[in-house]
What does this fold into?
Amino acid sequence: MKRTTFLILLGLIYFSLSVNAQSIRTTKHNLSVTSPGTIKATTESEICIFCHTPHNSTPKVPLWNRNVAGSVYTLYTSSTLNATEGQPDGASILCLSCHDGSIALGSVVSRISPIDMTLALSSDANLSTDLSNDHPISFLYNSTLATSDGQLRTPPLTTTHLDNNSKLQCSSCHDPHKDLYPNFLLASNLNSGLCILCHSRTYWASCTHASSSKTWNGSGLNPWAHIETPYPTVSQNACANCHNVHNANGKLRLLKLVPEESNCLDCHNGNVASKNIQSQFAKIYKHNIYGYNNIHDPAEATSVTTKHVECQDCHNSHASNASTATAPFVSGYNVGVSGINQSGVAVSSVSNTYEICYKCHAGNSWSPPAALPRKISQNNVRLEFATGNPSFHPVVGSTITNSPSIIPPLTTGSKIYCTNCHGSDNSSDPRGPHGSLYPQILKLQYTSIDNTVESPTAYALCYSCHSRTSILSDNTFKKHFVHVVTAKTPCSVCHDAHGISNIQGNSTNNSHLINFRTDVVVGIGALLRLEFVDRGDRSGYCVLKCHNKVHGSGMSY
Amino acid sequence: MKTLNLLAAFCFAVFFSTMGFGQIAGSAHDFTTESWNSSGEMCNACHTPHNSLTIADAPLWDHQVSVATFTLYTSPTMNGTFGVGAQPSGSSKLCLSCHDGTVALDNFGGVTTGTNFITGVGNVGIDLSNDHPVSFTYDAALATADGGLFNPTTANSGLGSTVTADLLYAGKVECSSCHDVHRGGSATGKLLVKSNAASALCLTCHDK
It folds into this structure.
């Protein structure tokens, strides 16, 4: 009997505790002397009084007991924001009567003297009057907004709380009276459950960032330092891996860090993600993401007008996953990224990986010039790879019918990615042209210095697909050996690796990727002729002077 | 049987302690020394033993009643309803006969030419839109609809029984739900029915 009574008592205690756990009494918003927090009144025992009064309230609703600061707030702004913001109103302006830091916590209307407090508002709770680093509030969220944005769910939203004017307010995410979830959130934000009630990002469901169970290994900077109560895995933190809803360092798009790449590299540095991308950018030749700040803009022209490169130019952090593909189709690593297609038209989401490269390497005003001086000069790789060209590497398409040197499994019908040649110098590194020890971010050595002694390593890049044995046995061009080995002429002197546009070249002079380097080969005669003449299968001649040797039709093969 | 006896004893104890707690003498409602109350009587400003005004629910009322039209509290998140064109009613209307500031304090006992009006925080005015709503039904259905209110039929008032039994009048929230006009103990400050330390009075109804 006694035991039963004890158990009943225990049950009663537990029940009373569990009820209290849902009361404002046990939250930091209990600012009275009984507060569980450190910021509290020295003697005042009333809890509601810090916000509410039963009489003479101001603003009247909801019986508010605090003056509104009358501050002019700096609002969030972004090139991708479709909402029309006004100054904070509704419930939000009430929250700001404490949280903008301009009115002391103890200053309530119903008391002549401010309530004496132990401490002022903490810095992380003080949003200040600069709300440009906070999630926007007090904007109308309706179907028109959802449609114009394209990445927002269409109201009515069943579980979020827009106010009676259909505006999103602080109260859309927070319940100031209940702290069942961290930061007074209305619901658990596990897997960003609260964020995705409104935000509907294309691809997110299949994104690795939404499913990864990776954890931080404790080395380096804590990627979740901006989260008050982080979850242990990437997928659980979801949006919060990169975004900070309040007081974000990177104001635009509420990124947690500046500069932009920091938001990626604090996980992709070997401490969270499986591959260390950061180490790639320590190499001499790289897509230098460190070199540009606040230039990239998601709303920028797809054909990039101002030179820069950031991770998000090639990767969509809301979409990326590890799914594989075969050339030329885009793999999961680059899915959901914009590009320029082979016709020169902008696409919001590429089908083929090379379309991403064309955003910058297709004759933009600032595009890198061709690496070597040639008779036909071109820095628009989109033109170089066109399948109507006299010759081209099979990035966009393949029309090759005969190439004896190709090493299986490649065949004459194979297509290749730009990244088959451009990428890390170490095959065990992450794929992609992040950085390399070799110029042009090439994967392997591709010596372009004239008079180089031929070796497997000197032209390792070419030999990775084209059999050295076959080339030097003159199975293709009958004079390869004498040119490359005897005369120590690099591949690049005669061949232009990408291709020769049919706008500039023709099938007689520019088949077999022939486009001579003008720093090695010079023209001859009154017309300074500098050309190869194709006479059909493994037959032709050159008119030019190279290594002080004049070539002419008499040297045909 | 024993349990029943105990329960009865407990109820009596609570009842009497409540009745005995505080008194009007010395409180803000002790008008014996007010200049406008020449008779110096305690109860006459509000009550008369004979020939009281014929006002519904008014306990031997003898103070002129306000005829003002009141602006009521309204809020998009308020689930309680006043009804179309409704005005403060019940005992709240009696409180407002002094506290809306439109009727003189000394308009009682048939006098209608008084000149002393309530001042300070006690004057809530005829604009009640900045005051806690009164004269609306508070029942279990409202608690469910609101989600932030306790069920008054089961919630403990802290005064011996439920909110409905102890604090509501004909099922409605009135001024007297929070204020006991006849009690003035300093512990309750503004004539509150119970201490609001730790906002206990607010949190009797509000599930926050």
